[in-house]
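Dig into these lines:

——
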Amino acid sequence: TLLMYYFLRVKKAHPVLLIGVTFVLSIVCSAFGIL
């Protein structure tokens, strides 16, 4: 629920910021996947 709330807040921000956050999250998820 916290991630959804954060996503809704970011969604109200600039689309570029949303793309950047998604890109960072994908990198973090892949990093945790490797670890």
The helical segments are 2-12, 15-34.
